[in-house]
What does this fold into?
Amino acid sequence: MRLELDPNPTLQKAFLTYASFLLLALLLLGMLFLVYGVSPFKAYALLLSPLTDPLGLAEIARRTIPLLLIGAGLSLAFRVGFFNIGAEGQLLMGAVGAAYGALFLPVGPWTLPLLFLLGGGLGALWAGLAAWLRVRFGASEILTTLMQNYLAYYLVVYLVAGPWKGQLVFGFLYTDRFPKEAQLPRLGDTLVHWPTLLLGVVAALVLHLLLFRTPLGFAWRVQGENPLAARYLGLPGGRLLLLTALTSGLLAGFAGVGEVAGIHLRLLEPAQISLGYGFTAILAAWLARGRPLLVLLTAPLLGLILAGGDALKLSLSMPFRVVDVVSGLLLLALIGAEALSRHRILWRR
Amino acid sequence: MLRLEGITKRFGPVVANRGVSLEVRKGEVLALLGENGAGKTTLVSLLYGLYAPDEGRILLEGKEVRIPSPRVAQRLGIALVPQHPELIEAHTVAENLALGLDLPPFFSRRGLVNRLRELLSGHPLGVDLEAPVHRLSAGEKQRVELLRALLNRPKVLILDEPTSVLTPKEAEDLFQEIRRLKAMGLAVIFISHKLDEVLAIADRIAVLRAGEKVGELGREEADKETLVRLMVGRSVAPPPKAPPPREEVVLEVEDLLVPRHGFPVQGVSFTLRAGEVLGIAGVAGSGQAELLEALAGLRSYRGRVRFRGASLPKDPARLYALGVAHVPEERAMGVVGGMSVAENLALRIYPRYARPWLLDYRAMERDAQALIARYRIQTPSPRTPVRFLSGGNVQKVILARELRDGPKLLLAMHPTYGVDVGAAEEVHARLLDLVREGAAVLLVSEDLDEILALSHRVAAMHRGRLVGPIPREEMSRERLGRMMTEGRA
It folds into this structure.
């Protein structure tokens, strides 16, 4: 048996590969559940339970929002060759920007757009810094963006424990609650802050159009796939990279605004704001293979995996360590399927 | 020794080999002749275990074999000298050779060298085993590849376009070596698209076209004309002569210096007139690539360069707008593999399709259709990604794109490198069309025949200096060879 690169796999084949890998992952999980003393079928049902009731769907949607926003931006960034590993930090910077706007600036009907402006701007700045370092000094953005995650993380910790610590929160590490004008509207009783969701869908659509139908997108694709050719043509490579970084940072910043102004309504400890959306979104972008439109599919899929894990946690009172193994295995199956679907297996030697 | 029966290999919709049967005997040189994209390289990859055939059998000494990997190929006694040496530049020759050996986990340098000498006794080494590879010339590097192939005492030796990196003298040495190996009983498969070499070295010649074997001749029944007809499917006329150049000076270069490690360009001066082809030959690495890239805006330089009376900008995009087109040294630089043929044809001018800010792909593809027809680019459709095209067709895509606006000056490097006879003929015809319209061409090539056939004046680069230029009428192949290697006209 050997593997050969398959340059253009059929849709059918890709689907079959994904299905069989997920099946394999479920089989392994079944064994895990058995060992843990839970009926695998009950666990499978729980994993998929978010799909069956409106509350569950809302849970999926809530997790989809940041994954969609960040994933759309990252699918562009990866396509253009800006390997932004720092979406988590950019999201946190977005949350900081929103908190500043909500807590320290006069509020009014302009507040919500202003929050997005501040948060998105701060996220863009954070990513733009890494792009500038790469263009100007050749610093690898993989390292700089990764390290910037920690800077943003501890900036938030410092703010909520120090200068921005709420007046009425006693020992807890968070700020005061945002005023009414700085809270995003939600769908009914759920935590789905729909303006951010809408923003995510629009972002995926616009980025896709931009990338595949405009002169800017044309230049972006040349730069991303063959930087040598971009140089040969005299394309402004530095500016193209910078613009990409700003766009993906902006969207990650938006996601941060959505989390604090839509769900938590205050700035709190970074681990509670994000749940690692900036990293999970890398997977969403990667599964979409550089097509922002496909993130509309991959982000909800990952949202389901996260929400299903939560359902397990709550209903079976499984410790989060076990639940993390569940999501980990499922994500691994997706990665494996993605790789294999681009190859074909030859059974004869 | 080695026999192929009915080998077929498909890549998606593309059939690279269809029902190919071949045989090579002990002590025989079989030449595999064919244009680029004819399926030679695929066939070699099948023999060397890089791909598996979809149909057909491979027989070695009468027994059917399967070759799942290069390692198995080596164990079976099949060795390959690749087209471009694949060596580790920072290591010494001995260390590179050691990669092909089964060695104990620890060994001394001295022990290794002794072991290699013992294994290679009977073969002239021709290189210093202790020299680091990056100091070797292209010919010596290939020598190392050949020695590495011989280490495993192969029965079948495959040489993939071995002369493409060699000077004429080095090629002659290689042929001597092949004759010697043949006399030792090796079966040799020699892959080429150059007729002269094939006629000089082969005992039998098999011709591939479009993935199929279209003929097999003994050396004595073969002549150039028959082979070309088999390869191309029709006969090929020598390129027509370009008309004499005009008075108007297009490009004036004075004291051009390109700072660079190694042999930079050191004070090159020449002028180029409208309707003139200036050919520049040179041993690889003598500065001709740097000269061309400097003029194309890809390298910084010092010196005075005037293009149609004004100084030349250093930005590729502005250069193109002024009418300076560039066929780059590496095809990989000139196209974006994952983008479609139509998009690659529009690489220079895509903003023109913005209506007002969305690209009009229908117009882009319509224009592409016209260029595809005019340059006879073989592609399933304008939407096919360029990476599915053969080298010759990629080269035509680049040429079609660079010439579509009627440039005033064309900087062309190796425009027919790795391109087959038929496509090269078309490339030359297009270049001459351009010259007839009054454009100037600076042609850098490793193919001396190409330079001599197309140029009005010929020069050579030698260690960063320009030797010549000299009118074509006073030039001969031998004189050009001297200019390249000795730096004297």
